[in-house]
Amino acid sequence: MAAPDEPPPDSKLTRSKQRWAQEGRFLTGKTSRPGQQRLPPGQHLTRDWPTLDLGPAPTISRERWRLDVYGAVEQPLFWDFQQFTAQPQKKFISDIHCVTTWSRYDNQWEGLSTRDLLVYDQLYAHSGGRNTAILWGSAGLRLDNDIDIVRSFFSLGGFLNMSGITPETLVGPNFAILRAIYYRQVGVGGRGFLDVPVYVGASLERGNVWAARQEMSFDSARTNGSLFVGLDTILGPVYFALGLNDDGGSAYYLFLGRTF
């Protein structure tokens, strides 16, 4: 890939496009009014699907197809075609207006919504001696206006995910949660309680789900928290936790496995 300040490779296509730009080709001098005019100025309507390429179109089988997201991301993603189509799919209809001046109405699309890939999750941890402090934030936004697809909504509830309520109690198209977690090692293993390291800790969580992005605010978020005891066993971490919510309710947890 060329650097941003490098000119594009010289070819017949790039020379033609540069000439078109200098000649002002496809410019009509008219103002587009989408609310009144479905076909933009300078476009022509077609019913087929034009294919523009610089040579033979490559044939890529579904077995070779991949979607790779890596580099400056927190969670790299590598999907083959089967994994991609296993994600929540949606269908919608829209017009398409190509820069090569053709337009086509009422195209039917099906695939993975971009909203399912744009989720923020960041965790910062600091340890000193027996003490560990964690700041953990997560958020997700639905980028389209189709809020009827409940299967792709976000949910909150469960230990360290609004601990005072049960899983999937809060469900909506937009969510955010910020967690502050502290725990201290009070046992080192060997002789003692169950002969394994023991930790005690607490969390403070503030978050919610919202029907519209415009409604999202810190003031409208709910506050939950937890008190927990953790055991570092040969089978993995074991947690006993009490979750508390801002309505005075509570939830209890006992499970095996790492959560943060």
Q: How would you characterize this protein structure?
A:
The protein is mainly β. The chain has a domain at 116-256: Porin (Beta Barrel). Helix content is 7%, strand content 44%. It is built from 2 helices and 14 strands. A 7-stranded antiparallel sheet has the order 6-7-10-11-12-13-14, with no helix packed on it. The protein is elongated, with a radius of gyration of 27 Å. It starts with 11 loop residues before the first helix and ends with a strand. 15% of the residues are buried. The mean pLDDT is 80.
Question: In brief, what are we looking at here?
Answer:
This protein is mainly beta. The protein has helices spanning 12-23, 81-85, and strands at residues 44-45, 66-69, 77-80, 89-97, 102-112, 119-128, 131-140, 154-156, 170-172, 174-188, 197-210, 222-233, 236-245, 250-256.
Write the layout of secondary structure elements.
Blueprint: H1 12-23, E1 44-45, E2 66-69, E3 77-80, H2 81-85, E4 89-97, E5 102-112, E6 119-128, E7 131-140, E8 154-156, E9 170-172, E10 174-188, E11 197-210, E12 222-233, E13 236-245, E14 250-256
Parallel strand pairs: 1-5
Antiparallel strand pairs: 2-3, 4-5, 6-7, 7-10, 8-9, 10-11, 11-12, 12-13, 13-14
Structural features:
7-stranded antiparallel β-sheet, 260 residues, elongated, single chain, 2 helices, mainly beta
Task: Give the C-level CATH assignment of the domain at 116-256.
Answer: Mainly Beta
As a whole number of angstroms, the C-alpha radius of gyration is 27 Å
| Strand numbers in spatial order across the main sheet | 6-7-10-11-12-13-14
Uncertain spans, ≥5 residues at pLDDT below 50? Answer: none
What name does CATH use for the topology of the domain at 116-256? Porin
Shape: elongated
Please report the number of helical segments. Answer: 2
Structure classification: mainly beta
